[in-house]
Amino acid sequence: MLRIVLSRTLPRISGISNCQYSAAAIPVPNAQPEVHYNKLFINNEWQDAVSKRSFPTINPATGEVICQVAEADKADVDKAVKAAREAFRFGSPWRRMDASDRGLLLSRLADAIERDTAYLAELETLDNGKPYAVSYSVDVPMVVKCLRYYAGWADKWEGKTIPIDGDFFCYTRHEPIGVCGQIIPWNFPLLMQAWKLGPALATGNTVVMKVAEQTPLTALYVASLIKEVGFPPGVVNILPGMGPSAGSAITSHMDVDKVAFTGSTEVGHLIQQASGSSNLKKVTLELGGKSPNIIMSDANMAEAVEQSHFALFFNQGQCCCAGSRTYVQDTIYDEFMERSVERAKSRVVGDPFNMKTEQGPQVDEEQFKKILGYISSGKREGAKLMCGGGVAADRGYFIQPTIFGDVQDGMTIAREEIFGPVMQILKFKTLEEVVERANDTKYGLAAAVFTKDIDKAHYISSGLRAGTVWINCYDVFGAQAPFGGYKYSGNGRELGEYGLDNYTEVKTVRTPSPPQYCRIKCSGPIGNIS
Amino acid sequence: RKCITVEFLLTASVLLLCLYVIWGDQIFIDNEWHESCSGRKMPVHNPATGDLLCEVEEADTEDVDKAVRSARTAFQLGSPWRCMDASDRGLLLNRLADLVERDRLRLATLEALDSGKIFLMAYFVDLMATVKTLRYYGGWADKVQGKTIPVDGEYFTYTRHEPIGVCGQIIPWNFPVMMFAWKIAPALCCGNTVIIKPAEQTPLTALHMACLIKEAGFPPGVVNVLPGYGPTAGNAIAHHMDIDKIAFTGSTAVGKLVQKAAGDSNLKRVTLELGGKNPNIVFADCDLEYAVEQAHSGLFFNQGQCCLAGSRVFVEDSIYEEFVCRSAEKARNKVLGNPLVPGVDQGPQIDQKQFDKILELIESGKREGATLECGGGPWDRNSLFIQPTVFSNVTDDMRIAKEEIFGPVQQIMRFHSVNEVIQRANATHYGLAAGVFTNDIDKALTVSSALQAGMVWVNCYNAMSTQCPFGGFKMSGNGRELGEYALQEYTEVKAVTIKISQKNS
After folding, report:
1. Contact at CB, A517 and B446, closer than 8 angstroms
2. What value of ipTM does the predicted structure carry?
3. What's the gap in Å between the CA of A372 and the closest CA on chain B?
4. A376-404: per-residue pLDDT in tens?
5. pTM for the full model?
6. Three-state secondary structure call for residue A530
7. B135 — contact with chain A (CB < 8 Å)?
8. What would you report as the CA-atom Rg of chain B, rounded to the nearest whole angstrom?
């Protein structure tokens, strides 16, 4: 079944290189990759934490400690911000660099990551638990593409000249914001790092990035590549650490100009608050979702079942855009349910380094317990457990692929983000009804509709309050298309050209244009001698 | 393929033997090498020595037909090229840039041998610009975005930016490999297919690029390179009924023919980069030494063979004598010689025809009463070198003030006031580029707004970059190359409108 996941995702994320990512071409992984870097990366140097503290990072497939990692705190954040500020100083090598050379550095970084694809995929799987085949053929290639995409933007982010009233010449400069704090989650550690670094560096900012404490390893390896390809010191600083200490220090720092956060809505609130209580730093947020996936009766059944399965179970259900409310039209509800259950039952759960594995462990014990708690609440509140519902292995954090039927909109599992392999299937009758119910949530990250009717597709895609709508597909990502949320799902957009806006200050420059210009302008064209 | 070994000096002290190989001397169609249908070949000379470098297959109408069929097939709906992700088109252009970088020394050597330009200039200017242009458009490929448009009524409208189709491209001999990149990069970035005719004087780097295009992995038929002459191969491209667009860089006289051919045939889209007689205005308040130096390189760069050449230097009267004196001094100090030798800063003109034309215009300058400050004739008897020449007291009605010379001949005129110089600068049917030297921001803005030219440089000249558009007002051309603007020249916009049942904001 791995092939199905791959064949559904790959054609969209790779083109001429399709063939090299077929399952057969994936190299046999080393399930115990060596960890080369476990310190803080500040000013292009590896440093211990000021406090000398460290924390363990765990292999979620076994629960065993992989290694200790230096733990950044406020003092380290201060050091990193200082380095980033110095790198951003007017006249610094980074500020004076041609935009095209910033692009070239990002391209070189993409090349270096591509070169080390197998190692990075191994490390990602070890630290995060996602199947190696996916790390290798989805996560890392998407990282490479994202960085290449933003490399191209570096010298194309153009200001304007503006015809204002009066005798003035007016133009805009698109300037970098400055020192950007970036806090990224553990569900796509490498990819989230690329989404954050790509636009920030293309536009000329400097970065202090805190990576999730669950998954610090790949980000630190990428830090070594950042140094290798030649980014000046201080441009990118990477700090493993905890949210309440290092994360909080970034968000309330008086010398950080902007903060970008991807994670839970709960923490998103804290970040916006911290900005308000400190220096009004610019804030962009990519937060949670409870995304509706609407299956109309005229949809291609096999395709809708497979895509809905993928929409929820991909990445162990640990996606902010997971299609976790599957609304199915009543006339096809039973058949859809039956086929979905069959599909979930056949899902291969196990060792993420095994090539046949579709689903690895959840990222840690906390998530594992939280998901099991939601499954209990579903049973308690009267949803019908169709399959799964329990632990899938005697060690590590594995959970059975679970489906609930007859889910009602008011149930906890229909309202809260579960972030695990638990699918809710709900029944609806009419178009208008389903749009209203789909929108009846505080979230607005993503949504999908499956139908062959172009008019229904358009009606629903216009009616849904969500930052991304997929029609007859799900989880189709490309670096070129923006991603972000309505309502409580976030603020601002990542990826695409839109992603650049969040890393740019626009400066308007006006200067008097001399009055004689007006006379000349009015005098009309001057005759040719030809 | 022919191997030629040449010796050249890379540094003043070290003699390097550079073995170079002419990778391509045939017609490149469908990623394959072909002999010409007519069986004809054309000779390629080294203008510095007059030696025959090699013979190259000469394309004519039949070869153009073959190439168009191949480009049309490559452009067919459903073809690998049409189905390719835009980002992968970008990746191919980036790979091509990497290959050019790898072969930079080879290409620069070929370029210097074939066109007579200074080797170090070819290496540092032409090849650098080539690599940057390919990378720049590599980045654009997946950023050529259509729009969704809030039309009135119950409709949903979006635009697709589609490639135009088969593009004919005809390039000149003054910057052979750089012009090649300027033309193919935006065309390929947008997904077109290309038939490109390099100048008959300088086909070698274009054919080497063809090898690299194949090596990078472009599908067959996407780029076809046809060395040949204007009146035969060029004419066939311009008149072809199955070529959707033509882009030409060259003389204004031929530009008119190209436009006419489009009108006579299938109304193919036309973009033109043509000649110039570019004013370079020097005010008394500028940094004089710097302005002299910039005006000098603005004219003499590339043996004066630039459409951008600042060939009418207008100098404010209070600094006129000093400016002329220093300019003549600079011109006299120029070192002529073998373009492969470091320290040489002027090579030969491209061919006998250009050489004769330049000398004829120099004679007209003398005859019409301009003051010859230095130079004024051939450098030695049996070669294509011309002495760096400076004329002062040039008046606007002289031929050397009106016609494009395309050689190392600098005209210096005198002016009194801002308005006067603007009028005189614009009094030409050309409108390609212009320069202004002043420390006064008001004058700079006034003059730069008033000049009818596609590029205006303030306190600099020839400051080109791939991000910045390039093209001409009036008879200097039509459309823009480089920058985001060039993408428009290689896209058709398709508006798709879908009836919907209910519209909402």
Report:
1. yes
2. 0.86
3. 41
4. 999 999 999 999 999 999 999 999 999 99
5. 0.90
6. coil
7. yes
8. 24
